[in-house]
Amino acid sequence: MKEDLKALLPVIRRFAYSLTGNMADADDLLQSTIEKILTKPVPEDVALLAWSYRVCRNLWIDEYRASKVRQAATQQPELQQASAPDETAVSDTITLSQITQAMDKLPNEQREVLALVAVQGMTYQDTATILSVPSGTVMSRLARARTRLAGLLNLSAGAPA
């Protein structure tokens, strides 16, 4: 199983990043996910990939709820460090920053589906299995997420992304 987990690390890391929007938080989530998988047995009738996604998602939900309690203290200006990146880095990160901010404004259900289907390239059925929802729910959440994301990024339907 450890060899299978090694092969899944990049996939679960990308999923964790799509949930957190921050590579440091994604690495922490990945570590917690792998730790949980190694300490709790994987159910016999569940694929390791699907189980890994589910564990990662559940840990992120738990952390997301806990972070709401700590959010006020961490957003105090005196705790934030100012930096002056060069002009190229700023122009390269503006788009990523805008997308991350727009993704953060999506409801969790839509963000999860968008991350699994659009970022991870999973099928609707696999996504439905991981999230324990019907395929139709996946399709409707994905459609709403794409529409809302396009609106948040001020993209028209005919404009190239």
Terminal Cα separation, in Å?
A: 40 Å
The CATH class of the largest domain:
Mainly Alpha
CATH superfamily of the largest domain: RNA polymerase sigma factor, region 2, helix turn helix motif
CATH architecture of the largest domain: Orthogonal Bundle
What's the shape? globular
What is the number of independent domains?
2
Task: Label the structural class.
Answer: mainly alpha
Task: Summarize model confidence as the mean pLDDT.
Answer: 78
Q: Write the element-wise H/E pattern from the N-terminal end onward.
A: HHHHHHH
Helix content: over 70%
CATH topology of the largest domain: Rna Polymerase Sigma Factor, Chain: A
Report the radius of gyration as a whole number of Å. 17 Å
How many E-type strands? 0
The low-pLDDT segments are 76-94, 157-161
Describe the protein's architecture and organization.
The structure is a single chain. The protein has helices at 2-20, 23-39, 48-74, 87-105, 108-119, 124-131, 135-152. By secondary structure, it is mostly helical. It folds into 2 domains: 1-76, Rna Polymerase Sigma Factor, Chain: A; 87-161, Orthogonal Bundle (Arc Repressor Mutant, subunit A), CATH 1.10.10.10. α3 (48-74) packs across α6, α5 packs across α7 and α6 (124-131) crosses α7 (135-152). The longest helix is centred in the middle third of the chain and has 27 residues, at 48-74. The radius of gyration is 17 Å and the shape is globular. It starts with a helix and ends in a 9-residue tail after the last helix. Mean pLDDT is 78; it is low at 76-94 and 157-161.
